[in-house]
Amino acid sequence: MSNPALARITAGTSPEEAVEIILRDGGVIVEGLFDEATVQGLRADLDPVLDAVDTGHDEVFAGNRTRRASGLFAKTEHMVTVALNPLYHRVAELILNKPIDVFFGEEAVPHPAGMHIGGTMAIKIGPGQGAQPLHRDDSVWLWRHPEYRREARVQIMVAVSDFTAENGGTLVIPGSHLWDDHRAPRREEAVPTEMKAGSALIWIGSTYHGGGENTTTDSHRFGLSMGWDLAFLRTEENHFLTYNLEQIRKLPEEIQRALDWSSEHYLGWAEVAGQMSDPLDLLKRDDYTSLDAGLPTTL
Prior knowledge:
Elements: E1 8-10, H1 15-25, E2 27-31, H2 36-51, E3 66-69, H3 78-83, H4 86-96, E4 100-104, E5 107-111, E6 115-125, E7 153-159, E8 171-172, E9 191-192, E10 200-204, E11 209-210, E12 221-230, H5 239-242, H6 245-249, H7 253-258, E13 270-272, E14 275-277, H8 279-283
Parallel strand pairs: 1-2
Antiparallel strand pairs: 2-10, 3-6, 4-5, 6-12, 7-10, 7-12, 8-9, 8-11, 13-14
Helix pairs in contact: 1-4
InterPro entries: Phytyl_CoA_dOase-like
Protein name: Phytanoyl-CoA dioxygenase family protein
Organism: Streptomyces litmocidini
C-alpha cells in the first residue's frame, strides 16, 4: 500500500483553503507559485554563491555532497519576493499570529503572537548525497506535541530546479504533524516532493521531513528555504551578525521588522538616553552609523 501524497494547489488558491489543507496534511505543494523571472534571478544570484562554498562536512545532517548558503537577503533581491509572497505570507499569518489574552491590571488585552523570519538557506543537493534524517523543525525549541497546541513555524521550500524522487526532492510524512512525541518517523512512511521549478512546498514545524537521497549521477537539486516563526522564539539564523546596517537599511521596512530590527510587544528594544527605543527609529538616524560605534547617547 503506497503512502498518501501531499495535495497540490495553485498560486490562485485562497490562503484560507491552503491553511485548511496544511493543518489537515502537514503541508501542501503550490504549483507555479513563482514566475520564471524570479526563478532565473535566484539562479543567477545564488549559483555563484553556492559554487564558492564547501560542501557540508558530515554525512548525517548537513551532507558531504550538499552545498548551503544563508544570509540570503544580502545575496539576492528575490529573497524579498519569496518572504512577502501573498499566499505564503498570509498562510503564515493565519497559522502563527493567533492572539492570547493577557492582563494589564484588571483588563484583559488581546496580545498578537507576531512572527519573524527564523532563517534563510539555499541548498544544492549533489549526486550521491544520502537522505537526511527525518526531523521536525520545531525541535530546535524543544516543542511538545500536542501539548503546546499551536505551531511554531511555517516553512517554504522553493524549487529553483525541478524536484524529483531521484534528485533528492524533500521527503515528507503527510499527517505526521498530528503525532505525539513518542512516535518515531520511519523512512518508508515518507514521500518525495516532486515539483517543477517555480513551485513550492509549504509545511509546518511539526511535520516530519528531510532532504531526499540524490541517486542521480549528474543532477543537482536546488532549493531555497525560509521560515516564518513565532516572534517570541529565538531565530535559528543570527541576523545581527549576518547583516550589516547598510544591508538592513536597503530592505523594505516589513523585512527590517521581520529580521528583528523592531520593538513590538516590549521585545527587542534598545536603551537610548534612558528610553526604550525602537530599532526602526535607530535605522533612520544619521548618527547611528555602525554596529561597532554602538548606540547613540541622546535622543
